[in-house]
């Protein structure tokens, strides 16, 4: 049975975990299991930048994930980066099995604004769908309303929708209908 | 994007190379990576690349040297240097060496995204520019000046000689000899070819209107001037101003134009602000300007100013050998335009075309062929398909009887009027009854 594993590295009561699981389950038409492993993430810390290397977190996810899961999504509140960029909201294995999303820069308070739980939740859902979309082999979409549109700022995330555009939805449908094309766990 | 752009990432640090490649792939680019200059040169040789992202500091051959090598192979290649903050000076050196831009690691995702899009837009504009220039060159080489006769070859030689200079050219020749085509050929072969050739027929406009057309006007310059308007002098800036039928312009306009040609400055009508312009002047006339000067109809100083380099276009009757070539050219042209097969001309039709005096020159021949293309049947142009003036002129042979000439003439007029008896009677100066009698007598048919 196909299922999506959400590996949460935060026990933040501010997040609506059941809501997130429900949305992802509907979007990718699979059951969702939420886990909270006990793991020290300092291995990914880069003192020079004061940030966490998302690529290292993907590698760790590959180690600790349940091999029976179809896809595994890590969720953290740490500030993520990749070597060439100042920050990332998340990273995924393109056409692979793991992805990671950070809520660090999704909080309005990060930009000096009053916190807004609903807004943060919506941004998290969008980024989670976005990164999981990459694990199905989808690239960034030129349609700015599609959830797979590239987002470099939080405002970009707010501008796009929570759904795939018709084209990307077609690609996701094809991928879901042909599990033999997925990478082996 | 229509096609996947190809980007080569060259960086000795695996993590940089890898993360940059992944990020670019997610953005939809086709990406390859190389860890050093040697690998980069191999990968570069093996494919076509739109952009190279190049780290400046690498062991062995550094990014600056590699950039030079890559530009030796492809001078138009877009290279974006990747650098650490500490080596911004080196990045500036790279810019001097022809790099498109540089980004300091780590960069803002938006910054790189915009930089790459900007680079690709420039690449696409450069390529479009090259394509358009090639098209202009092709069109220039294909100017419709057809002619193999010695005097036409001489004209083309003169046009070639003067094209590259900025000298004012006076093209002389009878109406219909192709003066504008020669003006276009001169412009197309000149250094001004990427700007406009702006023609104005001075003979077609009354003096006031000609001035407005040439100089433009400001809003309110005269009644009805609701908006300001650019004149031909401004439109020709950078290019060539072609003044056709220069012999017809008034003395006042000659004086105004003389001033503009001398100073390269003019004012729009209704304005006292001089505007600088830079254009080349090519004039054309079928008038005897020397006689006009002698008679006081044309300013002598203006005549000498425009007659710096004169080209005389021979009338068609003096280049009889070009007639079959021209006829073939127009047959092909109208066949394409009408969506027909190109017709052959019968030997009799060619003979007729060659013996005609062509007072209207090439324009008359062009019209004759166009008409023939419309009426010709069975895939061949015959003498009867040519306009009646030619037919009658050719068929009136010495020794014909008066009755034979009358018969042909009446037939021709009837054909020309579409067998309108009243109009034919009017043209021939006969009454309708006489026309009917002649039709019966000569057994004429529509």
Per CATH, the architecture of chain A is 3-Layer(aba) Sandwich
Number of helices of chain A: 5
Shape of chain A: globular
Largest sheet data of chain B: 5 strands, parallel
| The first-level CATH class name of chain A | Alpha Beta
Q: Overall pLDDT of chain B, averaged?
A: 86
Number of strands of chain B: 14
Class by alpha and beta content of chain A: alpha/beta
Q: Assign the CATH superfamily of chain A.
A: Collagenase (Catalytic Domain)
CATH superfamily of the largest domain in chain B: P-loop containing nucleotide triphosphate hydrolases
Distance between the terminal alpha carbons of chain B, to the nearest Å?
Answer: 63 Å
Radius of gyration of chain A: 15 Å
Helix/strand order of chain A: EHEEEHEEEEEHHH
| Beta-strand percentage range of chain B | 5-15%
| CATH architecture name of the largest domain in chain B | 3-Layer(aba) Sandwich
Number of domains of chain A: 1
Your description of this structure?
The complex is a heterodimer of chains A (185) and B (446). Chain A is α/β, with parallel strands linked by helices and 185 residues long. Chain A has a single domain (3-178), classed as Collagenase (Catalytic Domain) (3-Layer(aba) Sandwich). Chain A has five helices and nine strands, in the order E-H-E-E-E-H-E-E-E-E-E-H-H-H. Chain B folds into three domains: 6-133, Response regulator (Rossmann fold, 3-Layer(aba) Sandwich), CATH 3.40.50; 150-314, Rossmann fold (3-Layer(aba) Sandwich), CATH 3.40.50; 318-442, Orthogonal Bundle (Helicase, Ruva Protein, domain 3). In chain B, the strands form four sheets. In chain B, strands 2-1-3-4-5 form a five-stranded parallel sheet, with helices on both faces. In chain B, helix 6 crosses helix 7, helix 16 (388-395) runs antiparallel to helix 17 (402-416) and helix 18 crosses helix 19. Chain B is elongated and about 105 Å long. Chain A binds chain B through residues 49, 55, 81-88, 91, 94, 134, 139-140, 142, 150, 152-153, and chain B through 1, 13, 15-16, 18-20, 22-23, 25-28, 82, 105-110, 112-113.
């Amino acid at each position: 049975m196909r299922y999506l594993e959400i590996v949460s590295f935060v026990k933040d009561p501010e997040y609506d975990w059941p809501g997130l699981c429900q949305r992802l389950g509907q979007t990718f038409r699979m059951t969702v299991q939420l886990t909270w492993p006990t793991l020290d993430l300092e291995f990914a810390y880069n003192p020079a930048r004061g940030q966490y290397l998302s690529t290292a977190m993907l590698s760790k996810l590959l180690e600790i994930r349940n091999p029976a899961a179809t896809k595994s999504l890590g969720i953290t509140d740490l500030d993520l980066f990749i070597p060439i960029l100042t920050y990332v909201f998340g990273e995924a294995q393109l056409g692979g099995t793991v992805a990671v999303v950070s809520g660090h820069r999704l909080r309005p308070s990060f930009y000096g604004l009053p916190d807004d739980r609903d807004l943060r939740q919506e941004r998290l859902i969008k980024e989670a769908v976005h990164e999981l979309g990459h694990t199905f082999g989808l690239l960034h979409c030129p349609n700015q309303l599609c959830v797979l549109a590239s987002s470099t700022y939080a405002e970009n995330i707010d501008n796009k929708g929570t759904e795939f555009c018709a084209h990307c939805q077609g690609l996701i449908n094809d991928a879901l209908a042909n599990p033999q094309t997925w990478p082996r766990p | 994007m229509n096609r996947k752009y190809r980007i080569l990432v060259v960086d000795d640090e695996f993590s940089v190379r890898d993360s940059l490649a992944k990020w670019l792939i997610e953005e939809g680019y086709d990406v390859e990576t190389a860890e050093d200059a040697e690998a980069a040169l191999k990968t570069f040789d093996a494919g076509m690349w739109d952009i190279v992202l190049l780290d400046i500091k690498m062991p062995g051959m550094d990014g600056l040297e590699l950039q030079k090598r890559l530009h030796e192979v492809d001078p138009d290649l877009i290279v974006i240097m990747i650098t650490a903050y500490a080596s911004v000076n080196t990045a500036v050196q790279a810019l001097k060496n022809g790099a498109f831009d540089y980004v300091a690691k780590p960069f803002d995702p938006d910054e790189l995204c915009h930089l790459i899009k900007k680079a690709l837009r420039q690449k696409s504009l450069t390529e479009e520019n090259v394509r358009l220039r090639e098209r202009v060159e092709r069109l220039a080489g294909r100017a419709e000046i057809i002619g193999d006769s010695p005097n036409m070859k001489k004209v083309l030689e003169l046009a070639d000689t003067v094209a590259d200079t900025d000298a004012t050219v006076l093209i002389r020749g009878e109406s219909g000899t192709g003066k504008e085509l020669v003006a276009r050929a001169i412009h197309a072969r000149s250094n001004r070819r990427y700007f406009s050739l702006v023609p104005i027929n001075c003979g077609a406009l009354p003096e006031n209107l000609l001035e407005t057309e040439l100089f433009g006007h400001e809003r309110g310059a005269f009644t009805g001037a609701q908006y300001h308007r650019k004149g031909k002098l401004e439109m020709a800036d950078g290019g060539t101003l072609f003044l056709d039928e220069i012999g017809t312009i008034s003395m006042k306009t000659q004086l105004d134009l003389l001033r503009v040609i001398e100073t390269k400055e003019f004012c729009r009508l209704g304005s006292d602000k001089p505007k600088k312009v830079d254009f080349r002047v090519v004039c054309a006339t079928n008038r005897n300007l020397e006689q006009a000067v002698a008679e006081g109809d044309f300013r002598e100083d203006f005549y000498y100013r425009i007659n710096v380099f004169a080209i005389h276009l021979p009338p068609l009757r003096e280049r009889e050998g070009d007639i079959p070539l021209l006829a073939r050219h127009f047959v092909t042209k109208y066949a394409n335009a009408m969506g027909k097969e190109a017709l052959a001309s019968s030997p009799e039709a060619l003979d007729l075309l060659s013996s005609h005096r062509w007072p209207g020159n090439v324009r008359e021949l062009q019209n004759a062929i166009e008409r023939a293309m419309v009426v010709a049947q069975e895939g061949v142009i015959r003498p009867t398909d040519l306009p009646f003036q030619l037919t009658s002129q050719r068929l009136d042979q010495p020794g014909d009887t008066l009755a034979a000439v009358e018969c042909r003439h009446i037939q021709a007029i009837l054909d020309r009027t579409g067998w309108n008896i009243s109009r034919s009677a009017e043209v021939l100066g006969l009454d309708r009854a006489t026309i009917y009698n002649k039709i019966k007598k000569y057994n004429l048919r529509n």
